[in-house]
Amino acid sequence: MKHTLTLDYDLAAGWLRPFVEGLAEGVARARRCDGCGRVSFVPLRVCDCGKAHGSWIDLPGTATVSRRTTGADGDFGLVTFAGADTKTVARLDGFGPGDRQGAIVRPPSALPAIILRPEPKVA
Ligand SMILES: [Zn+2]
Questions:
Q1: Helix (H) / strand (E) containing 13
Q2: How far does residue 44's CA lie from ligand 1's centre (Å)?
Q3: Which of 33, 34, 58, 119 could form a disulfide with 101 if both were Cys (CB 3.0 to 4.6 A apart)?
Q4: Is residue 68 situated within a structural domain?
Q5: If you measure from the C-alpha of residue 59 to the centroid of ligand 1, how many angstroms do you get, rounded to a whole number?
Q6: Is 46 domain-assigned?
Q7: How far is the CA of 54 from the centre of ligand 1 (A)?
Q8: How many domains are there within the chain?
Q9: Could you tell me the distance, in angstroms and rounded to a whole number, from the CA of residue 25 to the centre of ligand 1?
Q10: 70 CA from centroid of ligand 1 (Å)
Q11: CA of 45 to the centre of ligand 1 (A)
């Protein structure tokens, strides 16, 4: 069965605005907890320590892939960004079978997305 569905979304970024704006620029903007210093990317509203206050920081943008999968929509990975204490899921664009390091890139459309391209291997 084939069915075309058109949705007209107008979602406000709210408190995630710095994160969403960072993604549009190809920047990994994370949140550092003011209580314990834990850095979350994607940002957590309330830290694991219970504090809800934090500061925005820009990470270097590189990430290490710990798990990956290939689906109908492409390759995805469970990744840890350098400087972050949490993991997140990212689209893996152009990754070869042995590639485990990537860097965030600006998404091809206006939609926010976490997309990694492989980093050159260090000899
Ligand atoms: Zn905390």
A1: none
A2: 10
A3: 119
A4: yes
A5: 18
A6: yes
A7: 8
A8: 1
A9: 27
A10: 34
A11: 10
User: Listing from the earlier edge strand, what are the strands of the sheet with 54-58?
Assistant: 39-40, 29-33, 54-58
Check residue 58 and give its pLDDT. Answer: 98
Distance 84 CA to ligand 1 centre (A): 13
Is 123 inside any structural domain? no
pLDDT tens digit sequence for 38-60:
999 999 999 999 999 999 999 99
Give the pLDDT confidence score for residue 122 in this predicted structure: 54
Provide the domain limits for residue 104: 14-118
Average pLDDT score over residue span 69-90: 96
Mean pLDDT, rounded, of the chain: 94
Pairing state between β 101-105 and 88-92: unpaired
Among left, alpha and beta (phi > 0; psi -120 to 50; other), residue 17 is alpha
In a domain, 103, yes or no: yes
pTM of the model as a whole: 0.88
**How many angstroms separate the alpha carbon of residue 37 from the centre of ligand 1?**
6
CA distance 63 to 48: 22
CA of 62 to the centre of ligand 1 (A): 23
CA of 39 from ligand 1 middle (Å) equals 8
Rounded Cα gap, residues 68 and 91, in angstroms: 10
